[in-house]
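Kindly go through the entry underneath: sequence plus fold tokens. Please state briefly how this chain folds according to its tokens.
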Amino acid sequence: MSSHYDAVIVGAGMAGLTCALNVSSEGKRVLVLERQPVPGGIATSFKRKGFNFEASLHFVDALAPGEEVREFLDKHGVSQKIEFIGLEEFGRVVYPEHDLIVKNDFASLKTWCQDNFPHERKGIDSFFKDMASFSSEFDRFTDSRLPLFLKFILVPLFYRSIILASCFTLEQFIARRIKDKKLAAILGTIWGFIGLPPAELSAFYYLIVLRGCWGAKTAFIKGGFRRLFEAMVERIRENGSEVRFNSGVKQIIVDRDRRANGVVLESGEKIYAEAVISNANAIDTLSKIIDSPELKDIYVKQLSAMQKSISALTLYLGLDVPAKTVGMDHFLLSINPGYDHSGSYRNCLESNYKLCGLAVVDHSQLDPQLAPPGKSALCVMTLDNFASWLSLSREEYIIKKKEAGEAVLGVLEKYLPGITKHIEVMEVGSPLTMARFATLPEGAIYGLAQTVAQSGINRFDQVTKIKGLFLCGAWTRPGGGVHGCYVSGAEAAKFTLKYLRK
């Protein structure tokens, strides 16, 4: 049995669905194949005993009116299928000596910094001017209609702030203006949403994410983010294209001319297409499922030198009371045990959960329907090392999950006193869970690590060495997060449509 499409997309994560919407809206016949029974990949949600939990998402930027992702959803008729819940703040950020509420605008953040660190007033002013220059140049670069190769040629002349951020770690970038280590740490707070401490993290990608998370308003989706992905699936089908679940791909067919022309499903079914777009992880795509031994060898050598991101440990807590009862006064709480982010990162690598930073989110505070009446659904995440879980026996794994959960709850009790007395449902997702459910090598939740050497133009391009095979998702440019994956999927769609027109 076989069939033929203009394009086959492997994976129904944000990038794959974005690509499918763009390509199908141009009248092309598209087929999206997803291994799991639901869309969204690692960003999906699930239900336990009446509690709805986000599997991994804490915060998605660019969903406010006029912002990039929202405009895309408006254009393609997705917005009319969902309900947005506006957000006016990022949440509460706690350090040993500082406790602040971060609004979704840089003006209030700058004021707080200058009020609390008056000796750094001049440096703070310069730092925020640097960020503004970077954002302005980045917008001009992305909005320019010049060919990508030409834009890259012009970078030294017109985009000096971008070059600067691309060459520096976040720690180096901040240190140019800010000398106070505690203030520098606070400005680097959301490194955990990217997966590397400031001493190793590319300033380029951090500044992009920081603007989205702390510098602009955004929104939540009523019913959870899975509702967003389901609405995108609906629109793809309304465009005359298809989305199939429980349909894993075991091979991408490559002909003698190094041209991708279809896929083979795990069931053995062959599906032919003019183009193939993989939203699966780049490592499996390029080193396992492409049917080209010669190219596999080339990619394996390239991939072996690249650093994968860290993984995560997540607790899903269903409480028998509203979380505000135990002090969760904001929907998001960022807990930072100290100002040394490199030390915190080492604790994550060593699974020393008592000294790791935590991100706590109560989405049911935004949408009470996500939990039974009078109750709440929390997601608690810390970064974790896949290697420390890999060689455990079944019994050892169960014990480690229990101990890890108890350690995280011990930390949580200090900030939300009494929370453990109100736990009705609790599940622990380990790095192995991330690896198994989302098919992520080593549970790498952010794809390739966002080091200076693997950020910006140094990241995987959407175009591969195989004609008609394109990549999208967290492993490609620009990087992880729903917004980053949206950009990647949109770029993959541009390349795909250009290829199909030929």
Residues 190 and 498 are 37 Å apart (CA to CA). The first helix runs from residue 14 to 24. The longest strand covers residues 2-10.
